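Feature request disguised as a bug report, sorry. It would help if multi-protein outputs had a clear separator. Right now it looks like this:
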Amino acid sequence: MRNKLSGVILVVFLVSGASRPFFGLITEENLDQERAAIENYLKTAKIVSVEPELSGRTQGWTVELDDGTEKKRGFFKHANRHRPNILPDCYMYEIAAYELDKLLNLNIVPPVIKREIDNVTGSLQIFLEECRPLDEQIKRNLSAPDEILFENAMDEIVIFENLVFDECGDQRDILVHLSDWRLCRVDFSEAFEPKKSLIPDCEIKRCPRSLFQNLNKLDDELLRSAVGNYLNEEEMAALIVRSKLITGHLDQLIEENGEAAVLYDK
């Protein structure tokens, strides 16, 4: 579908344990509060230094951040080739993916905000150290300690990739936390192709019950409110169609195989 940039953002936010959100731990119990805290940090922390990426198509920047309490790094994307550009690559799609993740209460896309750095506007995301791309873990013959939790997380990622129409199953964009194999999904700067279909060979088979319920709550107004500022009308219309195709597909699976075979509690 496309050639990936050589570097990936080593970012992950876990659903486990109590910790300050700047260390990358977001608990489901305080999800909204901790997301907001991270967003505020990204928006307000002082920019200490900027290091341009030397390779990779988007040539993003690694940014040193300091809010007076925490020193962290962020990754800044500023490419703004939105559609109908023949080679779309746009920071606004990163923000749109995060806003959709929040709308669905998924917690698989790390917080991203819009910010101006050195008179350049782009998306800024926290850069954390304790995770690796899934393909690296597989090459090292490592496997998830809890296969069921891993497969459940992959179900969510496949559904989300279909929704945003971004490359399916690229193991470089699926990041694994080294301690327990919790997953997240990054790199959406080429997402939201205006396709009114699901991704070929990216089959949706199962779905967490909570995600199924949230998908069924989506309507035109909710989607436009969440991401309308980041997508053009063609992209927006296709997203609305895909949301309906996903719920329709899941409804058909339930009818054919029974609810217990398709929906499950996390």
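(second protein starts here, but nothing in the output says so)
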Amino acid sequence: MKKLFLILIFTFSINSVFADSPLTSSVFYQAYLDMPIVQEAFKSKGKITDETWVFILDDMNPLHVKLAIINAIGFEHEGVMLSEMYLMYVMKAKNYQSYLDFKWGATSDELICYSYMLALDNYYNTTDAFEIAREALRKAPNSFAVNIVYNLIKSQGLTAYGEYCYASKLFLEIKSNTNIVMDMRIEALSYIFEYMISVSENCKTNNFYK
């Protein structure tokens, strides 16, 4: 029953409008524009260079920069399915034998990058992205970066059903969680939280957001 409820929450109508939503409004890449690779990603219009893919696939590179690159690339690039490209590259680079092999054997970094791309590719239906993000969170529960992307995807589904207050509360609870390790730039926080706090303005429990 619980699983069915989650599926219903994260399956959207294709006619819904998501131009102003958690996934599309959190432009935290702006805190990383001092990095040429992020600048290039922002200007790419979905045409990702080999250099960018190499950076994203390299386990030695920090996750928060990879997520900033994905955020900078954004969404709605005609003819480009970023998640499909990533899956092809990562399965070849890491020798995953099947999608299931990747899903259950990939690192938390690989899973959260894939889920974020998948959510941006299809932000009106984040069911599959949410499932992958949940597995990434299970593997890295204390990562701020993983928690943020997981909650962006989760909140996308919640706000589609008008659950703005609950979605905002999820983000602010991250701030008060002392077990979470800050593995993103502090400057990125305002870009991440700005939209979620703004949609909470009409919540009955406004004192929670002060």
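Even a blank line would do. Unrelated, but nice: Residues 23-209 form one domain.
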